[in-house]
Amino acid sequence: MARAQTRKRERPAELLKTPTGISGLDNITDGGLPRGRTTLVAGGAGSGKTLFGMEFLIRGAEKYGETGVAMTFEETAEEISANLASLGHNVEKLVREKKLYIDYVHVERRQIEETGEYDLEGLFIRLDHAIKSIGAKRVLLDTIEVLFSGLQNEAIVRSELRRLFRWLKDHQVTAVITAEAGDDMLTRHGLEEYVADCVIILDHRVNEQISTRRIRVVKYRGSTHGTNEYPFLLNESGMSVVPITALGLNHKASSDRVSSGISGLDEMLGRKGFFRASSVLITGTAGTGKSSVAASFVSAACARGERALYFAFEESESQILRNMHSLGMPLERWIKKGMLQIHAQRPTTMGLENHLATMCKTIEDYRPSIVVVDPITNLISVGTSISVKSMLTRLIDLLKTHQITALFTNLSMSGEQITSTEISSLMDAWISLSEIEIDGVRERIVYVLKARGMAHSNRVHRFTITDKGISIENEVQGQRRVS
Amino acid sequence: MPKQKSTTRSAARKAPPKENGDDSIKKWRLRLYVAGNTPNSIAAFANLKEICEKHLGGRYQIEVVDLLENPTLAKGDQIVAIPTLVRKLPYPVKKIIGDLSNRERVLVGLDLKPAASA
Prior knowledge:
heterodimer, A: 483 residues, alpha/beta, Rossmann fold, 2 domains, nine-stranded mixed sheet, 27% strand, B: 118 residues, alpha+beta, Glutaredoxin, four-stranded mixed sheet
């Protein structure tokens, strides 16, 4: 204890933080919410304010051994339990174990007559009792604004709220206060006036029928923080924020090589395959074997003992498995061994940001060595090309930071490679697959359009896809136009 | 306001049962929530007693609950403001917050039709 105090004295300017435990949020706030202070969380209806606050309490109890009090003004303890069960939290258990205390405060204006002076000491007493009964370090008030509609004397409510926020500070609890977003102010009743330490805004918007949740740290006194809007997810594993834009171009370039899984292709790539942590684009018209190339890459990685992650935006998992089986690549066994995960999803199920957030979360959780996105073409259907490019940039930044080699497939219409050229600048290698007619026979051909940092083949090669997989044959002879 | 803070202590001033309509006696049960001896609470108790004496004769019972002594009781009647007067009986439950200084509003709040001339 004495030592802790000395240390505190040595670094007086540093603000202590309480980690929320919400993955990603602690990154953008550089450690969590200000300890012993109050954070205001504002957002519209359905933006996830209550869940944010409850996650803060639950994760505090589960991960950091800090008990929490939820004083709720809108939902009863039963309703809260039910809502959080869908996010994988067992609220009742925490309450039983005295790690969480929920006090539902019901203020109904119609039932209350007011005459003369009063204060809100009853609220203070209840909160004080709740905090003391479980030794709480965290407090959620959700949402205290109800007092404005429940009580007539706004002057009293305001002065009592001011007193409450000071009281919370004096009691050294880290508090989250939720508030409804206002039109010309951050919150409808101007609560930001009282809470000056940290303000977070949640937002839930729908663009072209696809919804995206976003979070932004508007203010954080005495601390650096990410100022962008970050997409966040609410799913069965709770809330998570993906701070992808926090990354930059400072990842380390590896000189390690990774086999493509096709010996002939490795040969074309300076005899050794792709660079580790590089991003590879495979383009081709329909039916040229893009997914097969991707599957070969996956299969080889798993055989080397590296984990692979396959994002499928066109085919279902079983369809991929069946197709690859017919090419002599039984991918099921890698799935069984836990070396491979296939995540199949329709691109239109959610917006780009959500796709990105989901993908990043899966990558962070699974930590693969290689990632396949098949195809990125379909993502373009849910966003503009600028947003697709921005999303891919952030995805690639994340992959490179984790030294993950990534392979993206993209469908190109014959003669048209506009989308490919837009995203090609992000890619370290670009391999083109196509079909041409040679002496009355359609042949599959492959060539390397670019491969940064390596002496790659500039020849066009023939390749075949059989039940033994893909094999690349000799160069195509003579002068023929690539179609 | 009595100086005793005991929680459920009844500060009732029961009138002797001089009215003899046994079954029809409507007993008012009122509960006043306070938090220590604050000016508002003292005023509320004094105002309440005066009103009850005048309008309810002896048919009332006032219970003073000090939340500082027994904070868990705040939950049951959903007490937020102090002082709060809760009319437990007759049904339905009514709540009046404040120092009860506005007699008209208290009477309305308690459903005691203010006799215009009284």
